[in-house]
């Protein structure tokens, strides 16, 4: 019995000294484990006489209970101490900025708008904007489409209900009258008028933005994106237009073998007018631009319209057409994005599907630069 008491005292001292949960567990195994000294002591009961056993059994059980509860108490104390030290060392500084977790992505349309701005800025163009809720005069009349002009019908315009003229007085000029009629702009061309009226000539700008038409199928959505270009200066001619578009498309698609085709066309606000096509081929199910012309398996995609600014438009915007000439163009941003980045369905652009966005989107820190390649994917 004395031996058991000695073992017990030694074990209680070791338990009290245990500095970690691991050290404590070693003590538990040494005492209460299968081959621990308490277990071995319990096994000796079998060889004892009934009288001896009656005396020894409660004593050994008492030691066992004492050791077990000492271990339990020490375990709780060690766990509490561990939590304390964790709380003391792991501080959370709520004044720090949030960790940067890249979430979301830059939509290809936004990316292409940044690419456009980068390329045209290098050519000396400023970026201009105008309102999406536009008036009839800027959207049509000033662009040489007066009220009876048949070209208006092609535009599938979203009109707002008529506004009442101020004070109920009939407006006098056609500009004042037109400004009362509001609509969602059908193209970015009204920004030409607003910019010329504000800044006069010479002028060199692009105007990217949303435009609206009542039209919807696989290749048309009621809202889409255009970029307008306008250069007005002395002695501007069609050669400047062609060089500018070619230079732009070579930089945009990052290849030299771009073939552009200018087809004679008609727009009320340009004279002469041309439509701009780019050559492409189908590789796999992907459209690839460049160097294809009319050869077999290759085709042309229409990217927009352009021409020399009609002198009536310059006049209406307050620029003297005898002193200044200009060229203008309007390109579909969604289309050139599809061609460059290989999407097939325009409607997916505006579905907001996170899988599409994470596949086709760009990292927020990947700003397009001419030196790094305008469209460097993330
Ligand atoms: N505004 C025209 C459209 O939306 C496109 C266009 C054609 C713009 C010729 C121009 C241009 O600046 O010169 O269909």
UniProtKB/TrEMBL annotation:
For the ligand (Mg(2+)), the binding residues are 271
What is one Pfam family matched by this protein? Phe_tRNA-synt_N
All copies of the Aminoacyl-transfer RNA synthetases class-II family profile domain together span 110-354
Requisite cofactors: Mg(2+)
Q: Which key words are in the record? A: Aminoacyl-tRNA synthetase, ATP-binding, Coiled coil, Cytoplasm, Ligase, Magnesium, Metal-binding, Nucleotide-binding, Protein biosynthesis
Tell me one GO molecular function of this protein. ATP binding
What EC class is this? ligase
The note describing how and how many cofactors are bound reads: Binds 2 magnesium ions per tetramer.
EC number(s): the record gives 6.1.1.20
Q: InterPro entries, per this entry?
A: aa-tRNA-synth_II, Phe-tRNA-synth_IIc_asu, Phe-tRNA_ligase_II_N, Phe_tRNA_ligase_alpha1_bac, Phenylalanyl-tRNA_Synthase
This protein's GO cellular component annotations are: cytoplasm
| Location within or outside the cell | Cytoplasm
What processes in GO biological process is this protein linked to?
phenylalanyl-tRNA aminoacylation
Q: Which reaction does it catalyse?
A: tRNA(Phe) + L-phenylalanine + ATP = L-phenylalanyl-tRNA(Phe) + AMP + diphosphate + H(+)
Coiled-coil regions, chain positions: 64-93
What NCBIfam families does UniProt report for this protein, alphabetically? Answer: pheS (TIGR00468)
Q: Which family does it belong to?
A: Belongs to the class-II aminoacyl-tRNA synthetase family. Phe-tRNA synthetase alpha subunit type 1 subfamily.
Under PANTHER family, the record lists: PHENYLALANINE--TRNA LIGASE, MITOCHONDRIAL, PHENYLALANYL-TRNA SYNTHETASE
Its subunit composition reads: Tetramer of two alpha and two beta subunits.
Q: What's the protein name?
A: Phenylalanine--tRNA ligase alpha subunit
Q: Which organism is it from?
A: Erythrobacter crassostreae
**Taxonomic lineage per UniProt?**
Bacteria, Pseudomonadati, Pseudomonadota, Alphaproteobacteria, Sphingomonadales
